[in-house]
Amino acid sequence: MKKNDLFTLFIIFYLLSGGYVPSASGSALSIQTGSGTKFKVEPVFQGLDIPWAMAFLNPSEMIVTQRTGKIGILVPETGRFTVIKDAVPGIKHGGQGGLLDVAVPLDYTAGDWIYFTYSKAVNGEGATALARARRNKNRLDNWEDLLVTRSAAGGSRHFGSRITFDTQGHLYFTVGDRGIRPTAQDLSNHAGSILRLHIDGSIPDDNPFLTVKDALPEIYSYGHRNPQGIVFDSLNNRLWTIEHGPRGGDEINLVLPGRNYGWPKISYGKEYWGPLHVGDGTHKKGMEQPVKYYVPSIAPGSLILYSGKAFPEWKGNLMAGALKMEHINRLTVSPSGTIVSEERLLEELQARIRALAEGPEGWIYFSTDNGKIYRIRPATVKKREP
Questions:
Q1: Torsion angles phi and psi, residue 222, rounded to 5
Q2: Is 73 exposed, middle or buried (CB count within 10 Å of its CB: 0-12, 13-18, 19+)?
Q3: In which region does residue 211 sit, left (phi positive, over 0), alpha (psi from -120 to 50) or beta (all else)?
Q4: How far apart are CA 101 and CA 21, in angstroms?
């Protein structure tokens, strides 16, 4: 047997036994943006199955979900990737569904709950579900579904779904309209909504639809198409989302309790099948306007609010991964919550950018749909020692 064959067998054995995957190869890419910021883009890892989400559990380890249902722990400095065994029960993988977000509160410490969203099989259909579990070395223990949303449908589109936390013990997560447009205006199901719970899964007693007849009490806002980015700005007490429009009309929204964000009654997008605008126009009484919309669509896949630790000039900026337009969309936000400027980073990479995460040192980590994880760091800062 040749040496290459032996090496291949060795890697397969490690993968099957919950071992490590080879880290990414390649050199750093040096970039200077149009606004003058210099940074380097470094490959961190490769060989994943659509890495959908990332979250740091401590300064040296991040948890990574793959849409196919796999979970792993990555040490970015060494490229070591440990497979989490027997991770997600009842997952329905296919189309846009599968294992989706992973998130932890800001005060997370080892042994605390880790939160997930995924598409769950419900009577042969798929519904967005929120769950939590605890990490025990290379396993997840005490897996618990907190909410299997009333969004089950036979299609494989528009599950959402991202998670964020405020500073008052609340968790917010997004649910897409499942490709069935009228559900986004129907408060008797969870599709096309932003949901709000306590972190233990219970319903806050000040949720806006708690006393509305036939409305589901977890709903915080509705009229959304397919929100795949959400972040809470604790400094300004603001909740931001970014969502897919149809052909044009991706939206950034400043979400307020009980508000209707219009889909599919109003939209800045057009029908896929022809040059007609969706709905009844772009404005309607009682429906909110986006803070920003994109025509043509960028196809947003994530959203973070950058802290400014490594790049002070970006402090307080919103950043979204773009799938169709293949870049990181950086937005400067005014104190009043308007979008001041937009910059598109890493178009030269020509990759569908799915997830974003900020590391403890302020470096920006991102994943791509071709199975890679990269990071952005200042051009003049040396890497940490392993």
A1: -145, 180
A2: middle
A3: alpha
A4: 22
Instruction: Report which residue type is found at 192.
Output: G
The answer to whether the beta carbons of residues 224 and 193 sit under 8 Å apart is yes
The CA distance from 195 to 127, in Å, is 14
For the chain, 386 residues long, the average pLDDT of each consecutive 10-residue run is 43 41 67 89 96 97 96 96 84 92 96 97 95 94 96 94 97 97 98 98 98 97 98 97 96 98 97 92 97 98 97 97 98 97 96 98 98 95 56
Name the amino acid, one letter, at 370: N
93 is catalytic: no
238: alpha, beta or left? (left if phi > 0; alpha if psi -120 to 50): beta
CA 228/CA 158 separation, integer angstroms: 9
User: Residue 213, CB half-sphere, CA atoms under 13 Å: how many?
Assistant: 0
Task: Answer yes or no: are the C-beta atoms of 145 and 131 closer than 8 Å.
Answer: yes
Catalytic residue among 158, 170, 244, 327: 158
pTM higher than 0.90: yes
What CA–CA distance (Å, rounded) separates 156 from 135?
Answer: 29
Instruction: Note the residue count of the chain.
Output: 386
CB atoms within 10 A of CB 144: 12
Contacts 24+ apart (CB under 8 A), 199-206: 199/105, 199/113, 199/115, 199/165, 199/169, 199/170, 199/171, 200/146, 201/130, 201/132, 201/144, 201/146, 201/147, 204/170
- Contact assessment for residue 297 and residue 249, using Cβ atoms and an 8 Å cutoff: yes
CB 289 within 8 A of CB 337: no
